[in-house]
Fold each of these.
Amino acid sequence: MGRISSDREITAPLDVEALRAGWAAKGEERPRRHARLALGARTDMGRVRENNEDKFEFLEPDEPAVLATRGRFYAVADGMGGHQAGQIASELALKTVFRAYYADRAPDVGESLKRAVAEANRYLLDVARMIPERSGMGTTLTGAVVREDELFVVQIGDSRCYLLRDRRMEQVTEDHSWVQEQVSRGAMTLEEAETSPFRNVITRSLGAAPEVEPDLFAIKLEPGDRVLLCSDGLTGMVDDGELFEIMREGSASVAAWNLVDRAVEYGGKDNVTVLVFDVRAIEPWEPEATGR
Ligand code: MN
């Protein structure tokens, strides 16, 4: 990445022109199918925190070759660290992951996501090492790539991905948290985990260690699916039963607003961020009809 100045650190640009140049060279590949999506997203500081360390980002390229190989990318990150470092961590991580993912030529989405995550991790560590106020910064990352009718989810930390399908909602990701580890090995009940004073302790994050191993999930999308990415500011305030009730109603955008409203109404103890998308249809690819 080269030398990091504080100027560079803040801006770390998502260089769309460079991406376009790369995409132009990607060739003539075309998607066979296209998932028509409807998107909603919202982030809120909450009622207690004085800044917002959460962030969401998405990129929906329109070049057919890029859609065929890389797809569309949606992500939520929840940063941590004092002196505004959490805000910078989530922002830098998302920019770096998006840039690295779209610059990667490998056909395997999972491998590209892993490399992109490793690059963001290295970058955060470099920034933290070179700028003392930034030491200790880190971030979660929950990302979703939609390529044709496939959903790939990449997971680090305790932000989450849920899938609503056929009027049932399932949590796709598993938290990388101390309490989740206790629950998984039977040492703690879910109820105990929800009230544990250690419920915010995460066991994996970007920027914490030289190596980070993300979880990867792959799901075949179906028309009618609704996908939710969210930070723990939502799931810490609103239980799964109520999430399900809210997720069943309204458009993706309305659901996103309602989810955040509910978390804030219940105390808003943390920053809260949600990104929701609906699979409106899965259609044969037609170049002139490239909508969401
Ligand atoms: Mn949080």
Amino acid sequence: MRASRFHLATLKETPVDAEIISHQLMLRAGMIRRHAAGIYSWLPLGLRILRKVEQIIREEMDRAGALELLMPSFQPAELWQESGRWDQFGPELLRLQDRHHRDACIGPTHEEIVTDIFRREVNSYRQLPLNFYQIQTKFRDEIRPRFGVMRSREFIMKDAYSFDIDNDGMQRSYDIMDQAYINIFNRFGLDYRAVSADSGAIGGSTSQEFHVLADSGEDAIAFSEQGDFAANIETVEALPPRTERSVASAEMQTVDTPGMYTIEDLANGLDVSAQQCMKTLIVEAEDGGLVALVLRGDHELNALKAERLDGVASPLRLAQREQITATLGSDIGSIGPVGLKLKTIVDHSAAVVGDFVCGANQDDKHYINANWGRDCEEPVTADIRNVIDGDPDPDGTGQLKILRGIEVGHIFQLGQKYSESMQAAVLDENGKGVAPFMGCYGIGVTRVVAAAIEQNHDAQGIIWPAALAPFQLAICPINYHKSEVVKQATDDLYQQCLARGLEVLLDDRALRPGVIFSDMELIGIPHRIVLSERGITAQQFEYKGRSDDSAQEFPLD
Ligand code: ATP
Ligand code: MG
């Protein structure tokens, strides 16, 4: 490809509305352009990378025996009513009506459609196992689209659905997909981890997520430093501390704490550690009332654990400020467990702290030296927090380490949820109708591109892993338009590279070498060759790998 004929649309300035590096670099490199919140076009450069990702996925899915098909984005409501998800799905599901006032949605996922296909096409156990996949556009009306294509509203997913006659078969299909995912992510050349995960509302027992490790990742994942344990932090049990509660050493006192609303304000203002402060969160109860959840100041609430507690509304909802003030008579920043007239659940770790600091349930006042059992009731305890670095791992043998990850893939065992609700039976060996056991397997194709950049960049721009690079080689002539010698040698080299099947970008634009070099670095091409008149006279060219410190000379031949 000649750069003069390619739409290289690089930008010098960092776009102000792009918060994370991958989003900034995708815009600056001219890979994507935004039209509305979470809605993007892929320009020719970006599309080349997207196609590489798709191709690797396609090859490995085919190799694993899955069959590619293509399902519609526009999905009739009837199918979603059959599965029961028409009513279950919230505003993430984009609903619409056609000109005949028939309800429909733009598919956020395709379990309903694929089950509809299955029940029409397949009727015997002899046709199983079966795995259908597609690479297709999804729409989810995300509440907060952000980070460019990392969390967009329209995005491309590879989704696969397996069908088996029994649970063992489903397990085998799942294992085959697990291995296919390992092959796919290895081929991308990214640093990733497979971790066990929550199956969410979809149900089913086993589920694994694939995460690309990156500091900007939205998910936290916990690894055992000694063992094999790895899981999304959402699902990891925090073991109760082995230590006894510390004994009270002083009388409880009220202190004035104007302007101190956060744990950090309090810890600084009163010169205590965050561990010594109680964080009291008020959430909605199932019956419309409120429930208090108390954590150590340095711990974070785990929403999945909290919403499973008796009496707490699921999905978890933090109470509105007005409702808190109306019910409790003081503002959020001053709530605490002493004298609180609400059902209160205390995290195991918070329950062993003595002489703690907590809100006094009066504006701008806190207690110091408060103690469980003495100044308030013996706590009802539960595990409601996220694990942190250094916590024991769940089998109690080692320590956990927390890293950040970007979820790029998710594999689930669905069981018979959709095949039963949508009556997709096949005949078994005895001629009896059986609802097949399903699995579903997603990869965020567009998200993979952003995640790859998040993990591979420097101050100059993107550093593509070889398998994803839009071009392998950049040929950068100096004075291409002025020197016949340079033009001749460059065109020769370009033709030879093409003949060998290399993906080359020849930068024949009439620009200063500095501009050309910085563009090639920004868009992340792994290898660069520079041809100059001086070099050609000396029968040499200059080579630099994208992450090399300096260029090297090589003989032209
Ligand atoms: P998340 O927790 O990030 O919202 P999810 O659990 O909703 O993801 P799945 O329904 O399992 O995601 O979808 C499969 C894959 O699609 C995800 O692993 C992710 O890589 C990708 N994906 C999901 N939502 C988006 C989005 N809004 N933008 C881009 N990719 C997405
Ligand atoms: Mg989601």
